[in-house]
């Protein structure tokens, strides 16, 4: 016999997801006339989606299975209003409602990058990270919840545009469960992919203690070719005149533009040894083990550990300037590879003290990445590069015609990051049935990110064999006394390196209270959060150039220990030790329920993203600020939740207006400084309408449909003094398509042989958008239209399905990176067919 409280908990954790309407078996005892209620914890209380005055988009177990969602880009493509930038596995950035500014670039400056403005949660734990979002594989997930709009009161910093929550399935103390699923697929012009996932749930003490284990391997075949090519230092920005970028803007002429280079020998870099078809393989391997324990009827303990590894080679973008962009080709002159490991241990304790529900959620996350990145494209913007790989008689001709040798420019970066995050939250809920109810608590997080980047110019190590007068670059090493994680000299050929530690510490106190003005009809909610976020940098970013003088001259942000020790002054303004965001954000909500099938609400909410110190503070004649200001968001939202046609049609949606102050952006502009830096770009505004519809046919049993849409109108309102040219007032923000929508129809029926069959076509569309707010990096990303189809059969405990994805073989432009003046377009996987299966025990 299940105690009532535990039965409720079980129903909450195993409820059918939002996007899985009127599920799957067609039989006489199944009622298709209604849409099943879904319980989520988006407000940090368990409640039906239709009973909470909050916009929630979600995908649950059935929807995740029906759409074959596995990884980061899969589920983002299914959610209108949610878009992503980035350049491959483990390197993605999430945007919601078009609140975006900049092209994600993780090659060189993750530690000095902007904090995300969308918070990512794994169960009760925030796993939001600077530079690289955690790419959690969607194995044995109960649901994915997307909360668009500012969520600053309950979820804190970096939730100014919204929050995404990945909710895992918890151990079941009542019955043994096991499942094996997998599949194989074939991509047009690419390699085969295969995956397998296994889950086992075992009750150790009936109704009291259970464990659950999940294991997965997903090998994703490549589809981009590394094709033959050569390149020389003659293509350096130093020697080239003003040229038009692909977006129509013009580059600055190089220092030696127009010089007679006929007596210069340019040695070629060739990639013949690296030429390979379908070189962008990726694999996800991981496991999660969790335990649930009921020490008493009023208390529950959940303990879990997740370990995941991503191994990826090649790149996930192509070069549209090559002869046939449909072939998805690129030229890379050094190996590209990444290994991304994380371990996460989380503890949640839930119980009751008197009338109060108590929840403690604590976690420790450790993440290590080891990456090698071809950096040859830097040649196109790096006017100082010839100093390091060319004879002095080339770079300092002294009035004579340049002569000498420039080595092959096959550059690469070796990048290592180590991330540790501790989070703790303690919160309390008053009884939900009371006329006045509240959620309140405190939050603490401590994140440390260590990043080491070694910029290697192989030609520089041959400097002693150059003609007389050439630089003889010394072996590079940390500045004396600097706070580096690796005190050893760098390998020969490392001309520049970063060894920087970033710390982000956050403390918050939060609360929301609801009062039923008219019970079950009219309610008001007020919320507030006090926060104190401190961001600091320390370490060394040294160039071989400074080893000539034997000391750091504080140029280009090389010694962060002295730059941010509280004693420096730039343009008469003291440089603080770090960036601090301290203050309050507020929320107000009014909800009206005129009948059991209608909920209307209005929400006012605020959000923020902390600023950060700038490594090259004061560069560009003081143009680069020492500290980037916190950007702030105010969200006004009118929403509705409607169950219509005898509960066979559900229509949820919202109209919103978002005001943005001091929008942050990341910039690379070699005319200002040779380092990436950040700045406050503009005040902006976003207007939009979004919604989703779910329908279960009353006349055709087994026929269901889901549709979702997002209309956006984004606008730069006012520039706030950025150091480079920004999109002008009236122009769009980046990653903000004016329209996105998708449609999925599913029909299920019982065949004469007893098999349950289904067919499911799907469509997704996105209008065009821009990749950046910074003009020199701003490229238009084309609209795209995707089609999919699946057909399968189910019998008892097994299922087999044949599927096709991207049937139109569309090249969806997910990211267009112009940072190095040449387009590099990240795209989706070409047309793919496959078969998948699952077996339950």
From TrEMBL:
Transmembrane segments: none annotated. It is a multi-pass membrane protein. Its main location: membrane. Residues 49-163 form the TonB-dependent receptor plug domain. Keywords: Cell outer membrane, Ion transport, Iron, Iron transport, Membrane, Receptor, Signal, TonB box, Transmembrane, Transmembrane beta strand, Transport. It is found in: Cell outer membrane. The keyword Metal-binding does not apply. Residues 1-27 form the signal peptide. GO terms for cellular component: cell outer membrane. One of its GO terms (biological process) is iron ion transport. Residues 408-807 form the TonB-dependent receptor-like beta-barrel domain. Pfam families: Plug, TonB_dep_Rec_b-barrel. Belongs to the TonB-dependent receptor family. This is Outer membrane receptor proteins, mostly Fe transport.
């Amino acid at each position: 016999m299940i105690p009532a409280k535990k039965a409720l908990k079980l129903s909450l954790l195993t409820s059918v997801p939002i996007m899985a309407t009127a599920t799957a078996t067609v039989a006489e005892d199944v009622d298709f006339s209604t849409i099943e209620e879904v319980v989520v914890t988006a407000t940090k209380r368990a409640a039906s989606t239709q009973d909470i005055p909050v916009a929630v988009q979600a995908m649950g177990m059935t929807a995740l299975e029906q759409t074959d969602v596995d990884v980061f880009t899969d589920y983002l493509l299914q959610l209108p209003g949610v878009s992503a930038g980035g350049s491959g596995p483990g390197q993605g950035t999430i945007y919601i409602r078009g609140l975006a500014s900049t092209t994600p670039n993780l090659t060189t400056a993750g530690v000095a990058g902007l904090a995300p403005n969308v918070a990512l949660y794994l169960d009760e734990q925030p796993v939001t990270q600077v530079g690289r979002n955690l790419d959690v594989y969607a194995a044995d997930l109960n649901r994915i919840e997307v909360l668009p709009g500012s969520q600053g009161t309950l979820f804190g910093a970096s939730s100014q545009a919204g929050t995404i929550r990945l909710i895992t399935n918890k151990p079941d103390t009542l019955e043994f469960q096991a499942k094996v699923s997998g599949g194989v697929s074939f991509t047009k012009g690419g390699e085969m992919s295969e995956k397998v996932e296994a889950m086992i749930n075992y009750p150790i003490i009936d109704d009291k203690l259970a464990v659950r284990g999940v294991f997965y391997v997903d090998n994703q075949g490549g589809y981009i070719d590394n094709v033959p090519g050569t390149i020389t230092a003659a293509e350096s920005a130093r020697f080239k005149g003003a040229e038009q970028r692909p977006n129509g803007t013009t580059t600055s002429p190089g220092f030696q533009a127009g010089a007679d280079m006929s007596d210069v020998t340019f040695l070629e870099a060739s990639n013949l040894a690296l030429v390979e078809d379908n070189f962008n393989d990726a694999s996800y391997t991981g496991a999660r083990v969790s335990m649930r324990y009921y020490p008493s009827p009023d208390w529950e303990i959940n303990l879990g550990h997740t370990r995941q590894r991503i191994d990826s080679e090649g790149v996930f973008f192509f070069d549209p300037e090559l002869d046939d962009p449909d072939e998805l080709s690129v030229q890379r002159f050094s190996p590209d590879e990444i290994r991304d490991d994380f371990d996460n241990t989380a503890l949640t304790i839930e119980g009751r003290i008197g009338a109060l529900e108590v929840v403690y959620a604590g976690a420790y996350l450790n993440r290590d990445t080891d990456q090698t990145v071809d950096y040859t494209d830097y040649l196109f913007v790096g006017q100082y590069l010839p100093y390091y790989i060319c004879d002095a008689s080339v770079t300092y001709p002294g009035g004579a015609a340049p002569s000498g040798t420039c080595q092959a420019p096959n550059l690469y970066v070796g990048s290592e990051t180590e991330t540790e995050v501790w989070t703790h939250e303690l919160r309390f809920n008053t009884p939900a049935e009371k006329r006045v109810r509240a959620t309140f608590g405190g939050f603490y997080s401590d994140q440390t990110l260590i990043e080491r980047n070694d910029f290697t110019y192989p030609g520089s190590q041959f400097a002693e064999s150059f003609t007389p007068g050439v630089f003889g670059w010394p072996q590079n090493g940390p500045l004396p006394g600097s706070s580096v994680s690796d005190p050893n000299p760098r390998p020969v050929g490392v001309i520049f390196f970063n060894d920087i530690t970033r710390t982000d510490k956050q403390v918050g106190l939060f609360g929301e209270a609801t009062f039923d003005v008219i019970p079950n009809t009219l309610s008001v909610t007020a919320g507030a959060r006090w926060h104190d976020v401190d961001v600091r940098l320390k370490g060394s970013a040294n160039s071989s150039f400074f080893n000539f003088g034997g000391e750091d001259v504080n140029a280009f942000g090389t010694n962060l220990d002295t730059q941010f020790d509280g004693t420096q002054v730039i343009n008469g303004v003291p440089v603080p030790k770090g960036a601090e965001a301290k203050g309050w954000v507020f929320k107000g909500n009014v909800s009206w329920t005129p009948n059991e099938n209608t909920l209307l609400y209005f929400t006012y909410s605020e959000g923020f993203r902390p600023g950060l110190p700038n490594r090259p503070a004061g560069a560009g004649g003081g143009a680069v600020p020492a500290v980037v200001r916190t950007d702030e968001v105010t969200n006004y939202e009118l929403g509705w939740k409607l169950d219509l046609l005898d509960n066979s049609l559900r229509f949820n949606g919202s109209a919103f207006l978002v005001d943005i102050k001091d929008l942050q952006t990341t910039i690379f502009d070699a005319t200002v400084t040779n380092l990436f830096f950040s700045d406050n770009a503009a005040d902006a505004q976003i207007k939009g309408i979004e919604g989703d519809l779910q329908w279960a046919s009353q006349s055709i049993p087994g026929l269901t449909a889901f549709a979702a849409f997002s209309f956006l109108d984004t606008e730069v309102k006012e520039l706030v003094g950025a150091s480079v040219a920004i999109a002008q007032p009236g122009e769009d923000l980046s990653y903000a398509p004016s329209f996105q929508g998708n449609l999925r129809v599913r029909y299920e029926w019982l065949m004469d042989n007893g098999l349950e069959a289904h067919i499911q076509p799907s469509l997704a569309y996105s209008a065009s958008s821009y990749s950046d707010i910074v003009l020199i990096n701003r490229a238009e990303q084309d609209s795209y239209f995707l089609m999919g189809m699946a057909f399968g059969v189910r019998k008892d405990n097994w299922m087999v399905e044949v599927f096709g994805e991207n049937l139109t073989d569309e090249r969806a432009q997910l990211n267009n990176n112009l940072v190095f003046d040449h387009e590099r377009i990240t795209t989706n996987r070409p047309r793919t067919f496959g078969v998948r299966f699952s077996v339950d025990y």
